[in-house]
Amino acid sequence: MDQEYIHEAISMSIGDNEDEKGSETKRTNWLARQLSKQFNLPDHPVVQFITYVLIGFLIWTLLFLLLHDEVLLNGGLFNLLSLFVLAFAVGFAVSFAKLPPLLGMLITGIVLRAIGFFHVSGIYVQVVIVLRNIALTVILIKAGLGLDAPALMKLKFTVLKLGIFPCAGEAVATGILSYYFLGFPWLWAFLLGFLLSPISPAVVVPTLLNLKERGYGNDKGISTLVIAASSLDDIFSISIFGLLLSSIFSIGSLTMALIRGPLELLTGLVFGVVWGFVCSGFPHRDDDCLVLKRSLLIGLGGVVFILGSTYLNYPGAGPLACITAAFVTNISWQMQGWGFDKPNPVAQVYSQLWVMVQPVLFGLIGAEIDVNTLQLTQVINSIAIVIAALADCRMLSFSDRRIAQLERDAIC
Phi, psi (5° rounding) for residue 313? Predict the structure, then answer.
C-alpha cells in the first residue's frame, strides 16, 4: 500500500513538472514570436516618431550627465535642443497635411523667437553657425550624388541660361520696385535685389530629389538641371552683391570685386574636382568599412569647404566645391560598381542624415526672424515686391523655349 502511494506521488510530481515545463515552453515560444514580429508594431510614421523621441531622450540624458546645468531650463544647450525637437515634431505633424515639413520647422523657429523662448549668446552663436553649415553640407552632398552626368552635359547651355537670366531679372525687378515703393537709393535697392534673388539649395534640393525618386522628369534631367543652375545662380548673385557692397562702402578694390565671381567659380570647381578624385581612390573598394569611410571623407570635406570658403571670404566657392566633389565621386563610384545594378549606399546614408539635420537647419533659419521688429506696412509692401519679382523671374524662365518645354514635360 505504501509503495503504491509513493509511486502515485512520484507520478503526480513528474506530471506537475511536465506541466510546468510545458507552460514555460509556451510562454517562451509566445515571447519569441512577439519578438520576431516586433510585437506586431506596424511600419507607421508614429513608430518612427517614437524611435526619434527615444533617441532624443537618450542624447539629452547623456548631455545632462556630461554638462549638467547647460541642458536644464534656461541653459543655452537646452534652448537649442528644444528648438530642434519642436521643429522636428511640428514638421512631422505638418507632413500629414501634405505640406513640406520645412514649413512647420520654419514656423516653429519664428514662433519660439517671437515669444522670447529661443535666444543664443556666447559660444552658442558660433555653434549655431557651424550646425547650419553642417546641415547645408548634408543636403548639398545629397544633391551632388543625385546629379545625372549625361543629362548635365546635354543641358549645359540651358543650365547657364537658367542660372543667370531669371536671377538677374528678379534682382532688377526687386531693385526697381524697392526704389519706388520702399524709398531705397538705387544701389541699396539693387543690393536688396541680389540679396533676395539667389535660390536656396536647402529648400529646392529636397523637393527636387523627392520628385526624382517618384519618377518625375527623370528622362529629361529636370532635377539635374535645376540643382546645377541653383549653384550657378548663387555664385552669380553673391558676386554682384559683393560688387554693389564694395561700391556702397568702398570695401576693397573694384577690380577685385569684378573678378570675385569667376574666381569663386574656378576655385569651387577645382577644389571640388580634386577632392572628388581623392574620395574616388580612398579608401580601397574592398575595405571592410567602405561605406562609413566614404561617407566620412565626402562629408567632412564638404564641411571644410563651406566653413573654409566663408573664413576666406569666398562664400560662393564652398557650396559649389561640395556639390562638385560629390558629383565627381559619384561618377567614379558608378565606374567601380555602385549606382547601376545596386543603389549607392553613401547616398542612402545622407538621405537618412537629412531627416535628422533638416529641423536643425530650418529651425535655426526661422529663429533668425524677429517679427517684433517688423511693421505691418513694410511687411505688406515687401511681400508685394517679392511676388512681383518672382513673377518677372518666372516670365524670364518661360521666355526660353527649351526651359519652358522641360518644365511642361516635368509637370506632365
Answer: 70, 35
* Contact between 112 and 372 (Cβ < 8 Å): no
Q: Which residues contact 131 (CB under 8 A, 6 or more apart)?
A: 80, 360, 361, 364
Residue 146, helix vs strand vs coil? coil
Domain ranges of the chain: 123-411
What sign does the dihedral 120-124-129-132 (CA atoms) show? negative
Contact 235, 261 (CB under 8 A): yes
Helix-helix angle 156-177:222-249, to 10 degrees: 40
**Number of residues that make up the chain:** 412
What stretches of 115-221 show up as alpha helix (H) in DSSP? 123-145, 149-154, 156-177, 186-196, 201-213
Amino acid at 277: F
CA distance 358 to 139: 9
Contact indicator for 118, 367 with CB cutoff of 8 Å: yes
pTM above 0.70, yes or no: yes
pLDDT in tens, the chain (412 residues): 555 555 555 555 555 555 555 566 666 777 777 777 777 777 777 788 888 888 888 988 998 898 888 888 777 888 888 899 899 999 988 888 878 888 899 999 999 998 888 887 778 888 888 998 999 899 889 888 877 778 778 877 888 888 888 888 889 999 999 998 888 898 899 989 888 888 777 777 777 777 777 777 667 777 778 878 877 787 788 778 877 776 777 556 667 767 777 888 889 899 999 999 999 988 888 888 889 999 999 999 999 999 999 888 888 788 889 989 999 998 898 888 776 556 788 988 998 898 889 999 899 988 888 888 888 888 888 888 888 888 877 776 666 555 545 554 544 4
Query: Which residue has 525687378 as its cell numbers?
Result: 173
User: Is 217:151 a contact under the CB 8 Å cutoff?
Assistant: no
Q: Give the distance from CA 112 to its chain's centroid.
A: 21
Q: Report residue 282 CA to chain centroid gap.
A: 25
CATH architecture of 123-411: Up-down Bundle (1.20)
Any idea which residue has 510546468 for its cell?
20
Cell of 167: 536671377
Residues 6+ apart with CB under 8 A from 390: 170
Say which DSSP state 99 is in.
S
